[in-house]
Amino acid sequence: MKSIIVTGANGQLGQCFRAIAKHNADNFIFLTLKDLDITNKKEVESFFSDTNADWCINCAAYTQVDKAEEDLGLAYNVNANGAKYVAEACLKNNMKLIHVSTDFVFNGSSNIAYTESEKTDPLSEYGKSKLKGEKYIIETISNYFIIRTSWLYSEHGHNFVKTMLRLGAERENLKVVGDQIGSPTYAGDLAKVILKIIKEDIRLYGTYHYSNEGVASWYDFAKAIFDLKDLDCKVLPIKTEAYPTPAKRPPFSIMDKSRIKEKLRVEIPYWRYSLSQAIQKIKI
Questions:
Q1: By the 8 A CB rule, do 133 and 104 touch?
Q2: Which residue numbers are catalytic?
Q3: CATH number of the structural domain spanning residue 98
Q4: What are phi and psi of 102, to 5 degrees?
Q5: In this model, does residue 1 exceed pLDDT 80?
Q6: What is the pTM of this model?
Q7: Residue 167 resides in a domain
Q8: What are the residues facing 70 on neighbouring strands?
């Protein structure tokens, strides 16, 4: 039996781990912000030294992309400094670290899927803060997995799928951006991959990409949500400039998943299949 710290336990991914833990023999230590503030170095050091854990899954993050443009201090403190403090504590206490990052570390100017070795160039402060966290981890510890993911959703918390289900039930039509391309990812699938790494004690450390298979625009994503839920709401595609936001989004954020599939022997579900599974669990 392994002992596993999960930070950010009230977030989407953290709650997926909570659900899985009910049927898992490992010892999970779920930490919310109230339990552990990862931006407090001394608090992190003290907790990790008192906890004889084998792994840490760092799900704690500042994820409000648009607010990060103004709330720089908190975004960088959580996504960069917090990640560094967790990595330092893992190193000191001989724990292995799995850290969740984002497709927003790329600028989206490519037209082919991004590999892990591609040049990073974030467009937003959120992306920059997450990239800085990645760099701190790489500089600090060797026993790490950084897993970049994209367009995360689940039956938990606030996300695009739940927003679309709510709006789709209220409105006759909805305008959704159709020129940003990515891969919707069910957090439950990502959680299973992370636990596979732990269960099999995989030590092929480094940076990996994980998202569900397939490609979609936000328009495609919304259309699929309404189709699967049989909602009579017409979706109208619009261009990015018609829906301005404080933070710039990468127009193309498809990530190449060859490395995680080959090295970790991971099978990845198609995004529409996972979406259909998740929608059955969502209650609005």
A1: no
A2: 126
A3: 3.40.50.720
A4: -145, 155
A5: no
A6: 0.94
A7: no
A8: none
